[in-house]
Amino acid sequence: MSENQLNELYKNQKGITWQCDLTDRIYIKFNDTLTGFKVSDFLTFRRKVHSVDIHEMIFNLSDDYDFELIQSPKNNFSSQLTLCEIIQLRDLLDGTKFSLDLNSMLYEVLGTVELV
User: Fold this and answer.
1) How far apart are CA 18 and CA 11, in angstroms?
2) Residue 2 has pLDDT above 80, yes or no
3) Residue 92, exposed/middle/buried by CB under 10 A (0-12, 13-18, 19+)?
4) CB contact at 8 A, 61 and 54
5) pLDDT level of residue 77 (50, 70, 90 thresholds)
6) Following DSSP, what letter does each residue of 55-116 receive, concatenated?
7) How far is CA 32 from its chain centroid?
8) Cβ atoms within 10 A of the Cβ of 25, count?
9) What is the pLDDT of residues 52-68, one digit of tens each?
10) How far apart (Å, rounded) are the C-alpha atoms in residues 88 and 31?
11) Among the four 3, 28, 36, 97, which has the fewest Cβ within 10 Å?
12) Phi/psi of residue 104, each to 5°?
């Protein structure tokens, strides 16, 4: 993939996301792991990450709650994440979703705009 086919959507300290014009996929690089998602798979993955009970992880002193296994077998993603990593991943996914929504709204309002 060349750089002109990838459009950066969002970036934080732990990761970055791009949208590929050729494959219609969203690529997420998080903790040195690169994974590609179809838009519908991305939204499912985002819901899965948001389903993690952060409150339980904070207040439960059991070692079982120190990490959470986040998986997306369809996209070959599997990672055991700490509380801080889950929060950073949520931020990355939420920022990406916001960018996608904003781009969609701009396209609806402005249509296709060509720069001269």
Assistant:
1) 9
2) no
3) buried
4) no
5) confident
6) HHHHH--SGGGSEEEEEEGGGTEEEEEEHHHHHHHHHHHHHHHHHHHHHHHHHHHH-S----
7) 14
8) 20
9) 999 999 998 888 888 99
10) 10
11) 3
12) -65, -45
Neighbours of 30 (CB within 10 A): 21
Which structure tokens are listed for 52?
């993690």
Ranges of each domain in the chain: 3-110
The Cα 83–Cα 98 span in angstroms is 22
pLDDT single digits (tens) 8-51: 999 999 999 999 989 999 999 999 899 999 999 999 999 999 99
- From residue 81, alpha-carbon distances to 34, 65, 70, 84, 114 in Å are 15, 10, 7, 8, 43
CA distance 26 to 14: 17
- Assess whether pLDDT exceeds 90 at residue 3: no
pLDDT at 33: 92
